Amino acid sequence: MKMIELAVLFSAIVIDRLIGDPVYQFHPVRLMGKLISINESILFKVGLSGYFGGFLLLTTVSGISIFCALSAYHFANNWFPPAGIFVCIFFLYSVIGLRDLFDHAAPVQKSLQDNHLNDARKYVQRFIGRDAGHLNSAGIVRAAVESVAENFVDGFLSVVFWFVCGWLFASLFGWPPLQFAVGGAIFYRAVNTLDAMTGYINDRYRKFGFISAKTDDFLNFVPARISVQVIITAAFLCGYDAKNGFRIAMRDRKKHASPNSGHPESAIAGILNVRLGGPCIYPYGCVDKPWLGENDIEITPDHIHDVCRIIQCAALISLAAAMAMIVIFDLLID
Predict the structure, then answer these.
(1) Which residues contact 203 (CB under 8 A, 6 or more apart)?
(2) 142, 303 in Cβ contact below 8 A?
(3) What is the per-residue pLDDT across 7-21, written as a single tens digit (0 to 9) for each?
(4) How far is it, in rounded angstroms, from Cα 283 to Cα 111?
(5) How far from the centroid of its chain's Cα atoms is residue 261's Cα?
(6) Is the separation of the CB atoms in 33 and 186 below 8 Å?
(7) Is the pTM value of this prediction over 0.90?
(8) pLDDT bracket for residue 2 (50, 70, 90)
(9) CA distance linking residue 160 with residue 217, whole number of Å
(10) What is the C-alpha to C-alpha distance for residues 91 and 72, in angstroms, rounded to an integer?
């Protein structure tokens, strides 16, 4: 059995958990962002600001991102094979954003507990799209909880899912599984970054960002639905109200305008017995989001700690399940 992929996946997640996601100039995801900005500018200058231009942006950015990562792997592998493994670990670690969620959420909770509302608004603004300047304490907590729940899928589960899918696809056809596994994860992060930068419904991006937004919805479709089961299991193991989480998720998961965000958010709302969603003020105006969950308990800063604890457990479950799937499929394929 070839277990290199297990070592790469496990190592990348452990490194993310230990040191998080430091900000530096040549971070792969930051380079993706610069590549998107450069290509967007070029495409708009030549008049390709519609659907076709958005398609070209998606294929160019994802293609270059995968090419650069795999070229680095092949160069390192030809020079010294173990170095190629470390290159794969580095790139996979770079596209995982689990620790970053908790590092962003912790100062929000502490500021609210210390009654520093303005600081809490400043900290929560770093990882939400809505205008935090209008939020009271409950609104800040709600925004933080929603973001942690939603980004568990975007920042972790989908990366792991497409790593496994890339490995399985390559293994079935006898192609290099490690390269395809890492390539799958990088492709997902490139699309997710494109959606974050161009997936807006406004005059500039309504057409140009459409392909990236819909591709991101597609890539997150299965992981978002898996997330409900994983989060519910984590809640049960951590002693939270898993039964109510399942009930609310089954009732409210499709209320959200996004085809995917409502699944993890509704599960967390039920587990914590709080309401998430509701009207939100964004830079482009107010969005009247539906409420998820029931207002059985007043939402407090402690719920930020609760959601982080549940998501940490959910990440461990996801890792164990992904590694088990690789082992089982490897045995079946052999």
Answers:
(1) none
(2) no
(3) 999 999 999 999 998
(4) 24
(5) 11
(6) no
(7) yes
(8) low
(9) 16
(10) 10
